[in-house]
Amino acid sequence: MPAMSLIKALCVVLAVILSIPAAFALDQTPMHLPVDSRPLIINTSKGDVPFAVEIADDDTERQRGLMFRTDLKDNSAMLFVFDQARQVTMWMENTPSALDMLFLDEKGRITTIRQNAVPFSRDIIASDGPASYTVEVKAGTVRRLGIAVGDKVRHPSIKSDGG
Question: How many domains does one find in the chain?
Answer without folding.
Answer: 2
